[in-house]
Design brief:
By secondary structure, the chain is mainly α. It is 72% helix and 0% strand. The protein has five helices and no strands. The chain has helices at 13-28, 30-35, 38-55, 61-80, 84-94. The longest helix is centred in the C-terminal third of the chain and has 20 residues, at 61-80.
Length: 98
Amino acid sequence: MRSVETNFSFPSGDSAQAALFMFTIMSSFQKTSFMMGGPMGSAQFVLIVAFSRIYYHCHYMGDVCCGIGTGILVGVLLNKIGLKDNLKTFYLSSVGLG
């Protein structure tokens, strides 16, 4: 088990990454998103990551809420400026499929 972290950061990067990952899955990989439970499954994943950061005393509630907001905001902005395909390619190449 990890030791308790002493350097708290704002916002929670883990929560932001989880939210951005699930936002990308939902917007770029609809079939995969459906297999993972759709919007409800995505929300559960993000909330589990957020809860774990609070439970292990790595972050406060405000940190993870802002982290989730940051991840969603980055996803929306990337979609707006047309980098959705780049993000999709990045995720595919990170698992060896791209």
